[in-house]
Design brief:
This protein has two helices and seven strands; from the N terminus they run E-E-E-E-E-H-E-E-H. It is α+β, with helices and mostly antiparallel strands and 107 residues long. The protein has a four-stranded antiparallel β-sheet with strand order 4-3-6-7, covered by helices on one side. A three-stranded antiparallel β-sheet has the order 1-2-5, with no helix packed on it. Strand 6 and strand 7 form a beta hairpin. The N and C termini lie far apart (28 Å).
Length: 107
Amino acid sequence: PTDSFEITTGAFVFITQSSPTNSVLSLEGVSKSYEQNTWALRDVSFHVRPGTILGIVGKSGAGKSTLLRCLNGLEVPDKGRVCFEGRSLDALSGPDLRQVRQRIALI
């Protein structure tokens, strides 16, 4: 049995196993804009358990790269938070943030 499902946000869809318990990576209400009323991400929430492979697909300009940059702390969301192993990325800096980035594989 699988507990995978689809989450649609704006123009992109990603498929993942999701459960707030035992999640290694969590996005909670993440929003990011670059210009007034131009949202790359709007209220994105999902949880990824250890060992899950997450695929993100969508059209050009759908927010895929922005999502990835928020996942590894290269972008700071305007709203919401990104957590890795229970620690919010916005609370990390320097060596701690580098250590988290080394543990998140992005291709």
